[in-house]
Amino acid sequence: MNLPNGVISLDCTLKSHIYLVPLKNGYALIDASFSEIKESIIKEIIDLGIKLEEIKYILITHSDYDHIGSLEFLVKTLGIKAYSSQEEINHWMEKGMNYDFIPKDIKEELVEYKKYVLPLPSKTFDEFEIIDTPKKFHSYGMVMFLYKKMLFCGDMIQSKAGSFMLIPAEFNLDEKIYIDFIKNFDTSKIEYICQAHGKPLKAHPEWENLLASIK
After folding, report:
1. In 2-121, at which residue ranges do the beta strands (DSSP E only) sit?
2. Are 178 and 195 in contact (CB under 8 A)?
3. What does pTM read for this prediction?
């Protein structure tokens, strides 16, 4: 899926998006989706006419399985580094790994992923502005990335049928912290929101419609 500013949402990652973002000297990947599609990710990048050596790094919003499943494979195959928040690194595996649908061998493999991830600085990274979320929000240290008025927000929000929707309460660490953050989050400088689950959407007026629906 082609998005503004040359951004691409990889079609093989529709259940948990990986975004391909053009840089001045190559491309960045946002998140790493499921392990089961790791080969398809590489194939799609090649089919897009992008050389693998043009991929410079991976930015990780948070460490739920559906965001880091292909991380080790991508880091090794592409010969690059991955980055996440220090808080998320500290709590790697403590949330999002206890679901029954994740095979035991994959859980054991994911334990090793921590050694492939470096901490992000607190404000900016390359062409991205880093936006923190509160501790005990959806995960322990989820971060979002702002690029040319496009927000890559991980699991801050999801969408369905052209509208933003809240992440279900059972997937958040603290529902009050989550709701308070959504209500007070400033989207005035954001034109497009690229979430992990559901079609990316123009921020307005859909964000205002979401806020109006929150009781």
Report:
1. 8-9, 19-23, 26-30, 55-59, 81-84, 117-119
2. no
3. 0.93
- For the stretch 170-181, pLDDT in tens is 899 999 999 999
89 confidence band (pLDDT: 50, 70, 90): confident
CA distance 111 to 3: 34
3-class DSSP assignment, residue 49? coil
Strand 150-154, strand 128-132: pairing: unpaired
Spell out the residues 6+ positions from residue 67 whose beta carbon is closer than 8 angstroms to its own. Answer: 16, 31, 32, 33, 60, 61, 96, 154, 155, 196
CA distance 10 to 123: 27
The Cα diameter of the chain in Å comes to: 48
Report the C-alpha gap between 92 and 86 in whole angstroms.
10
Tokens for 3, please give them: 């998005």
The DSSP secondary structure of 150-201, one letter per residue, reads EEEEETS-EEETTEEEPPPGGGSS-HHHHHHHHHH---TT-SEEEESSS--E
